[in-house]
Known about the structure:
Elements: E1 10-16, H1 24-34, E2 39-45, H2 51-60, E3 65-68, E4 82-83, H3 85-90, E5 95-99, E6 102-106, H4 109-119, E7 128-132, H5 136-147, E8 152-157, H6 160-173, E9 178-183, H7 186-193, E10 198-201, E11 227-230, H8 239-246, E12 250-252, H9 255-270, H10 276-284
Parallel strand pairs: 1-2, 1-3, 4-6, 7-8, 7-10, 8-9, 10-11, 11-12
Antiparallel strand pairs: 3-5, 5-6
Helix pairs in contact: 4-5, 4-9
The structure holds NADP nicotinamide-adenine-dinucleotide phosphate.
Amino acid sequence: xxxxIKGSTSLTGLLGYPVKHSKSPQIHNTAFETLxxxxxxxAFEVEGDRLEEALNALKTLDxxxxxxxxxxxxxxxxxxxxxxxxxxxxGSVNTVKNENGRLIGYNTDGMxxxxxxxxxxxxxxxKKIVIAGAGGAAKAIAIQLTFDGAGEIVMFNRTLSTAxxxxxxxxxxxxxxxxxxxxxxETALKEELKDAALLVNCTSLxxxxxxxxxxxTTPETLHRGLFVADIIYDPPKTKLMxxxxxxxxxxxxxxxxxxxxxxxxxxxxxxxxxxxxxxxKEIFGE
Length: 286
Ligand code: NAP
């Protein structure tokens, strides 16, 4: 890769803390190289109180755009010149475009999830969707699903008040979809899933450091015909996905969301389509 960097190469990258584990540099640099685009993507560890300095530095260096991750996704909103319609409701940004010194914020997490769902052939329009979790990813996904035609959202969370805030945002901004919040409880989850088409796990239960955990402990909670999406991608098959397979459900992990949220950011910066299939194969061996 180093050989392709020239005097004219422009910068993109990721601001967050920590970021050293991020797959985004590999994803974007592979795409730049494949399409012969003269950009480079680097990951920058920026602590909380240095975000504004980092944004000013990227403007000075004429970066074409950048991604933003935790802990800056909410805070960055007030430091930008303009934000997209979805950001006005979601309240967080993961992608920024630098248009001649004006920084414009987008959130591609929810859109990336929906692209992955579409790739898996899932039709969620006018359907009931159950979401587990009410963190940053759950909020972006829930709001994008309602923008794109979901019929009803039921959001379960360990901390009920966090889910209630998201549900209230949906109900006061998007009239086409009803939303309800519930405290996490497997019996209530089973009841709500009976007439749902899609279950999305947006909690961190099942991640690498908690692989034995799952929002569902038995296949009895699920039913054949339910599509189960887990946004975790490491491990590639979570405990929830194994239980869902036992119940006869189709499943999807979070890799598609990870790649597509990056592909949408890539298009915002470059106007070009990321070679998604090649990235899946070369970086993730899929
Ligand atoms: P977050 O804002 O920290 O939210 C974490 C969520 O998990 C909250 O709803 C939290 O509930 C819940 N939770 C954590 N520990 C729990 C436990 N022991 N029991 C029950 N609920 C628990 O995180 P996030 O950014 O939304 O990310 C959530 C997950 O999505 C992570 O695994 C992350 O890796 C994954 N993710 C994937 C992608 C992708 O591209 N595929 C993108 C973003 C995130 P409380 O509110 O009660 O704390």
